[in-house]
Amino acid sequence: MKKLPQPIKDTIKWVHERNHGEPIFIQAVDEVLYSLAPALDAYPQIIETNLLQRLCEPERQLMFRVVWQDDNGKVHVNRGFRVRFSSALGPYKGGLRFHPTVNLGVIKFLGFEQIFKNSLTGLSIGGGKGGSDFDPKGRSESEVMRFCQSFMTELYRHIGPSEDVPAGDIGVGSREVGYLFGQYKRLTNRYDLGVITGKDTAWGGSLGRKEATGFGAVYFIDEMLKTKGESVEGKTAVVSGSGNVALYAIRKLMDMGATVVACSDSDGTVHQAGGLDWDQLREIKEIERGRLREYAERCPKAKFISRKSGKIWDIPCDLALPCATQNELDGEDALKLVNNGCIAVSEGANMPSTPEAMKVFLKRKILYGPGKAANAGGVAVSALEMQQNASLSSWTFSEVDGRLKETMASIHGSCVHYARKFSRPGHYVDGANIGGFLRVAQAMISHGVI
Ligand SMILES: NC(=O)C1=CN([C@@H]2O[C@H](COP(=O)(O)OP(=O)(O)OC[C@H]3O[C@@H](n4cnc5c(N)ncnc54)[C@H](OP(=O)(O)O)[C@@H]3O)[C@@H](O)[C@H]2O)C=CC1
Ligand SMILES: O=C(O)CCC(=O)C(=O)O
Glutamate/phenylalanine/leucine/valine/L-tryptophan dehydrogenase C-terminal domain location, by residue (predicted)? Predict the structure, then answer.
């Protein structure tokens, strides 16, 4: 247990007291603040200007009613959120999540993570996040469209290409981004392509954005493996989730010579010892928007393990990529993974490992890449999408992918550097938190006490 300096203890107490109904936000803040202890002396103004408390309080939070009608004419009321956490490094940037578990605490946790993640990319993007407790599952295309239109009918007043730029996250992909943009355009009479990212490539989206988060998480694990003279090639991997991030992590793992033996959704896991079939998986999940159970029905070599009967983390693997949701991997899961021979974890999801799981990974000294570093490829390519929109240009897939690869190598390098300088070599959690923080702190100091 680290000995904490008084300003960190005070900030932790202060954050706990004023956010006690938001345990997930507190979890995210605690992790960062614990990491920062050795870096406080970098600039005396961090303490003098109460920078830590300023950073833990969102600059602005927006919560609004979203009313929409289903196909039977029934009127529903949902809650919409946009939390603008920090504009120290640029316009607020971060996705929108549509999922029934969304509440203010969840959006604050995601917005807080986004500050440090965006900082690590080296690009000029601040941190924000938004979403709604709307559940798109089982909803028709026209219901999803009406919901998106209603959501944007409030949000449009608060976003702009140099103000706040949303994107996708759980439950929000290029389809939803299209409906959101359409309503923004209708309300403002402006074709501001740079107001949202993750757009379809037919009308302003960047090639490579869809793939970026998953590909990036794999580039990151490969960078970590390189430090041990290893690579992804020839390894066995499991990837939780089967949404956007998971699918493209799987694709890249396969491209780089790994065998991906399992993935999951909220109903359970598919396990296929010889390796998953990409074409079937993509067809069911990305084209048909189906369930993973159907994959096992179509692929006789695959076994479906229901959520009640087991977890993806029970399956032996060399590499584990949690790419579904927060706190999906607990201490017991982590022990099982490590005891079964897992040597590296790269988090495609935001904060998928509980604090207990993190402790296991750090204690057992496996290669552990936390989400704010490992999944930063998505937002980095979103910023490239903004650049292309601003210059009315579009780059090739290989140009974007090349930049993504460089960005992930650079983030990896920062984590290694700051871990070595302030913590211990190989401690990617401290390296990411300190590296992300110091750039934001420098900007906040320059901007004065605001
Ligand atoms: N999209 C992006 O560019 C980025 C995403 N992320 C993070 O990656 C993760 C996945 O996002 P993304 O792939 O975009 O989202 P998708 O909606 O495309 O996919 C989410 C996947 O996770 C599963 N899942 C979601 N919630 C739960 C839950 N409570 N329990 C079990 N499974 C769940 C879903 O299963 P089911 O269909 O059954 O619900 C689905 O397979 C999130 O943590 C997100 O914040 C991070 C950086 C960028
Ligand atoms: O692409 C973006 O702007 C944000 C992606 C995102 O939501 C995330 O990094 O968690």
Answer: 206-448
